[in-house]
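Dear U.,

For the methods section draft, I wanted the exact inputs and outputs in one place so we can describe them consistently. I've listed the two proteins in the order they'll appear in the manuscript figures. Please don't edit the token lines directly; just add comments below if something needs changing.

First protein:
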Amino acid sequence: MTMQNIGLRTPGVLSVVFGAQGAFLLANAVYTLAYPSAASNLSDSPLAGVPSHTVRCIGVTSLSTAMIYAIASYQRNIPMMVASLPGRFFAGYVFYQNGGAWTRVAVFEVCMGLVNAAALVWDLYI
């Protein structure tokens, strides 16, 4: 019995990568919502010194984004995954402009955008 016989499709590389990024965002959301003070007290963190209520707002945003990533991955929604690419690169630019600890976040965002783009190319052409 193949996966297609039971109504399942093998996910593409982009769906797997996107799902993994969604899981990372979900973990980030849970941590910042459950422990906002701990997140703002991490040394050399972009959130260092940020009030707990602001950290919780960031957690809600991470939760929303994680859900979008999870749903797009599950549905294998290629247009939605492609639409995330400009957002990743724009976020990288904005975070880099903030300087300091945000430059590491900028590098992460751009790298994740490149990984998504590479996975898309893999799924479409390889």
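Second protein (the one for the lower panel):
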Amino acid sequence: MILSPATWIWLPLIAAIFSGFTRHKLITFVLLTVALVCALIFGRVEPLAMAISTVLLLVAHCIPTLVAHKRNKRLINLCWTVVILTCGLLFLHRLPGFNNLLVLDHVYAGPQSLPFTMYLNLDKPIAFFALLLAYPQLVGNKQKLHFKGILLAIVLLVSLLPLASLTGALKVELSLPDWWWLFALNNLMITCVVEEALFRGLIQQSLSRRYTWWFGLITASVLFGLAHIGGGMLLALFATFAGLGYGLIFHFTERLWCSVLAHFAFNFAHLVFFTYPALAH
């Protein structure tokens, strides 16, 4: 485990993410500004990355106003294209100028697990804030909960890890490494938030509003699976089914934080009860 003074940069960033779910826009972006300025001072963000982030957030901020005033659709589509493409590059760590912090370098969750490396990212969270500005409905609303549907989603998610162990990709291995708290903090407040914001908050929700709920659910889940294709076809397949579980929870709660919590619980159960990230052959 590698911790440095620069690690403290992520505290205002995580606070900004939490604030984003409370819809306090001013507090959210004050905290984000503090985090980015500190990152610039510590050399974790370079001026080019700061400029790209600023332009992205400004373009995202303009979209709801353009939509509300029924401005030129081509301009709206252009803004959305800029936001989606830039967020995709942030998601894939393809934009220059972000020096993400290495905190876990080839560590082992257990004796039968593959080595695991983890960074604290600054680029991926920027995508969350951009989507929050561009799509105000991102975090959902407070509709009545549908407990039968939620139970169905939980059953699906609970069954996936044992099924993965039957394929030989995982193996039961009880472990709680000393870096579990860092994994949990990063996974809950950064990884799961950003992924759920993109796939459930934006893609699933917007397609469900435009077409049907099941079309949005399936499309977002398939795209979520494809995003994991780098780990092989089997991982992509299981990620697709996991995406269906997270998507069902989002559909039946209409609250983004619920799908984030489900996503985190699934990942943390994977860490504690099975070989993580996979079985070492």
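Candidate sentences for the figure legend, describing the second protein: The two ends are 24 Å apart (CA to CA). The first helix runs from residue 10 to 21.

Thanks,
Y.
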